[in-house]
C-alpha cells in the first residue's frame, strides 16, 4: 500500500451521552478502534472455529462436522450420544456449537448405504490444480440414498438436539466441489452428474427443496439458526437456474438465514438480492435493513479465515494480507453478518480491529453502538464501486465532490482478469479537491440509528502528510450552525487520531444549503435530447443491429408509429438481442426509458445499458403480461464512453422450458437529467471542511453512542 504525501485520515464520529462542553481536540498517534467500556457483544453472535482447540478467548463457537455416517452407523442404529458429547465438550471449553450436517461427500455417507444400495460414487474434478485435497461424492438424489437420508433426518429431528440453547447455527448443506458441501455447480460437475445419474433440473430442485424441509424440521422452532449456503439460481444451464431460482427464498420464508463462503475475497456480495445488497446508480453499496434475515436477527455468517502462507496459492504474497484483512472485516460488518469463521492467522493480523468486530457484529441499526463509513473505491470491470458503509453514508454533492485517493496495488483475485501490464488495484480513501473548489466531505446518519439529537464525540484518524487546517461543521441545539475546533496538520507523516467533544449533534439534514449546491441539483443539464438514434423506430431498424427474431412493425395502438417486435424462436439458448452503440458524456446523469410489452409465455423482456467490458450499467425488465409498461432507470456516465444499448425480447440469460410468443418495444431513450434526480435524498447531516492548503484524504468516519475517549 502506498501512503502518499496528501493527508489520508480516518474520521470517526463517536456519539457521547455526556452533555459536556466542546473542549479542545485531543491528538494521539495511531488508529483507534475504541468503544465505550459498557458496550458488550450481542448474545447471538460470535467468532467460529472448526478446530478441536479453542485457540483464542475471542472464539465463542465451534462448528462440529456431524456426518450422516457417524450418527447412523448401521440401518436403524443411531449414535446421538456422540453429538451430545461434542456439544458438552464445547460448553466445557467456553464455546457454543454450530452444526455442519454432512451427507454427500463419500466420507460422510454410511458405508452400509453404499454397500446396500450400490449407488454411483463420483470422483469430483478439483476446483484448482494446485489445491491440496481431492474428494468423492455420492450424488444424493439417487432414490435409495435419498430415502435413507430422510429416514435418518426424521430420527434426528425427534432428539431436539438442534433446538438446544448451546446450538447457535446449522448449515443447510448442498453439493459442490468443496470439502464443506457448499452449494454451487460448475459445468464440469453437471456434465458428470447427468452422464452418470441422469439427473434433471426438476429432480435436483426437488431434492434440494426437501433437504431444506428436513433441516427446518430438525431445527423446528429455531429456524433462525439455519443458513442456506447459496443465494440465487444454481447451475450453468438455464434449465437448472430456472428450477432453483427461488429455493433460497423458499428457505427464507421458512425462517432461515444465509451463509457465505468468501468474504475474505473482499469484493463479493456487492449486488446480491439474497444478501439484501445492491448498488445504487452512482456505484454506492447499499444494504436493506428491512430484509427478513436482518430485521429478524437470523444467522448471517461467512468465512474470514484464509490468511497465512498456506493461502498464497490463492491470494498471493502474505505481505498484502493486512490490507485485505481490514477490508474483509469491515465488509462482513457492512453485510450485517453476526458470525464469522476465523483462523489463528486471522486474529494475528490486527487484534484491535478483530476485537472491535467481535463486539459490534450482530448489532442492528436500532441498537448499534456505532455507525460508520469507510471511504474507498474498487472496480467491477471498469465500473467504480464506492465505500463500505454501515448506517453512515458519504455522498459527493456540489462543493463536496471527492476524488479517489491512496491507490493500493494488490494481487488479483481469482475472478479478475487483466490485460498485460495492468495491475489490480483499489483506492483506499477519498480526498477533497481544493484546486477545483471542492473543499468538503458530506455525511448523513441513518435516522433509525440516530433518532434524536444528542451529545457527540468526533474522532478523526489521519496520516499527517502535509500542512493543512480543517474542522467539522454540524447543527447543534436549537438548529444552530456550529463548528468544531480547528485541527492544524504539521506534515510530519505520522498517523494520528483527533478526538473532539460536541455537546449536541442534530441530524436534521441541513447540509448542504449553499446556493451553488441548489443550482447544481435543481438546474437543467447542459446536454439535451435523447442520446439514442432512432429510438422511436420511425426510420425502421436504421442504427440498430440484431438477428431475424427482431423486426420493426407498425404499432396498432398508435397509427402511423412503429415499434420493435420480438418473436421467440425455439432453441434460443443464447438469449439474442437487438443492439445500438451510444456515445455518452463524462459526468452527465442519464435516464434510460423504455416501453415494453410482454405478449408471450415465460418471457422476461428487458432493456440493458452495458459497458464495452460487458458490465451492466442499468437494466429495466418487464414484470407484467399483456399490457405496456413504462420503465426507467437512472445512472451517470463515469467517463467519456461508448455503451451498448440492448433489447432482450426473451430476457437476459433467461431460457426456461416452455417459452413462447412475442415481446414488443417502443420509445427507447437515454436522456440527460438534472444531477439532483440521480442523487436522490441529498439531506446531509454534517460536513468535514478543509481550509487548506493541502487536501484531506478521508478513509473512515465512525459514529459511536456513548462516551469514547
Q: What would your notes on this structure say?
A:
The protein is an alpha+beta fold and 709 residues long. 19% of the residues lie in helices and 32% in strands. It has four domains: 7-38 and 369-523 and 681-705, no CATH class; 51-259, no CATH class; 260-309 and 320-366, no CATH class; 550-673, Jelly Rolls. It contains 15 helices and 36 strands. The strands form seven sheets. Strands 1, 2, 15, 16, 18, 19, 21, 25 and 36 form a nine-stranded mixed sheet that branches. It has an eight-stranded parallel barrel with strand order 3-4-5-8-9-10-13-14. Strands 17, 20, 22, 23, 24 and 35 form a six-stranded antiparallel sheet that branches. A hairpin with a 2-residue loop joins β15 and β16 (383-390). α6 packs parallel to α7 (238-244) and α11 (321-334) runs parallel beside α13. The relative contact order is 0.15.
Compact overview of the structure:
This protein has 709 residues and is an alpha+beta fold. It is built from 15 helices and 36 strands.
Query: Any idea how many domains?
Result: 4
The helix fraction, in percent, is 10-25%
Mean pLDDT: 90
Which regions contain 5 or more consecutive residues with pLDDT less than 50?
1-21
Question: Using DSSP, what is the number of strands?
Answer: 36
Cα gyration radius (Å): 28 Å
What percent strand? 25-35%
Assign an overall shape.
globular
How can the largest sheet be summarized? Answer: 9 strands, mixed
Count, helices: 15
Structural class: alpha+beta
Quote the distance from N terminus to C terminus.
Answer: 29 Å
